[in-house]
Amino acid sequence: MKFTKMHGIGNDYVYVSGFEQPVVDPAGLARRVADRHFGIGGDGLILILPSETADVRMRMFNADGSESEMCGNGVRCVAKYAYDHGLTKNNPMKIQTGRGVLTLNLEVDRGRVRQVKVNMGQPILELAKIPVDAGKLQTSVFEHMHQLVFGDAMEKGSSKARPMSQTEPPVDAVFVSMGNPHAVIFVPEVQSVNLSYLGPLVENHVAFPRRINAHWVQVVGQNEVIMRTWERGSGITLACGTGACATVVAGSITGRCDRKALVHLPGGDLKIDWRHPDNHVYMTGPATEVFQGEWPD
């Protein structure tokens, strides 16, 4: 099986083109190839497939074999692969994902894609659609400033959710979906957070029927934040594109940052812009091909 290793600011996946070869048991394949000691190594597996509604289709599998709806860093790499390898030369490009069909604008240098701006669509803020089971949070959830109140609203202007139980120490979270679920937790100093301990507790909390991506965020200024991630199904990763989008949305609706901000992640930076009037979130960042190879399985 031919594959290409790619990453978006360190969020690395093994990419396989279904235009050239069939893939049997992608969940099992993801577990094998993502292993960093006995496989190729990566945060998971992404398939690039034909689509009847877009230029190409993306399917994304985490390192544990579970399939996710969307990957922001991954979709930029899919666009680069599709353009650089001649699957399509459309720019803007349409990519079918579990979130729907997304539009991507490509920055091309000497025939190669270097950077991609993705229209990530509108954020989802309704708890049931994220999904979050409000009754199992054992909390009255934040008033999110867009005239939708989930659970029992706290005092007007409050941005804080009471602690989720079953996490020790408890955490306060803002919940956003970008097609996949996110819990955004603001802290004074992000480097001191024990991700290995807190990450699994939040990801697997009973309030999240499809588990959740957890992000700890430090606000530097109105247009700048620092973020660390525990990704559902993959653990600690160097970056999460959908998480960066969710972070800026969460920061904006709670008054912590503006709708346009630079997000610093361990693997690099992403530019996020939650625009008026379409309410869509736009993410801009690089996409990098590392190497190609052949998997003997």
Instruction: Provide mean pLDDT, rounded.
Output: 89
| Distance separating the two termini | 7 Å
Largest sheet: 17 strands, mixed
- Helix % is 10-25%
Q: Low-confidence spans: pLDDT under 50, at least 5 residues?
A: 139-163
Named CATH topology of the largest domain: Diaminopimelate Epimerase, Chain A, domain 1
Element pattern in H and E: EEHEEEHEEEHEEHEEEHEEEE
Radius of gyration equals 19 Å
Query: Which descriptor suits the 3D outline?
Result: globular
Residue share in β-strands:
35-45%
Strand runs, count: 17
CATH class of the largest domain: Alpha Beta
Q: What is the H level of CATH, i.e. the homologous superfamily of the largest domain?
A: Diaminopimelate Epimerase, Chain A, domain 1
Please characterize this protein's 3D structure.
The chain is α+β, with helices and mostly antiparallel strands. It folds into 2 domains: 2-118 and 285-294, Diaminopimelate Epimerase, Chain A, domain 1, CATH 3.10.310; 127-279, Diaminopimelate Epimerase, Chain A, domain 1 (Roll). The protein is 16% helix and 36% strand. It has a 17-stranded mixed beta sheet that branches. The protein is globular. Mean pLDDT is 89; it is low at 139-163.
How do you describe this structure in short?
The chain is of the alpha+beta class and 297 residues long.
Structural topology:
Blueprint: E1 2-8, E2 11-17, H1 26-34, E3 44-49, E4 56-62, E5 67-68, H2 72-84, E6 93-97, E7 100-109, E8 112-119, H3 134-137, E9 174-177, E10 181-186, H4 195-203, E11 213-221, E12 224-231, E13 235-237, H5 241-253, E14 260-265, E15 268-274, E16 281-286, E17 288-294
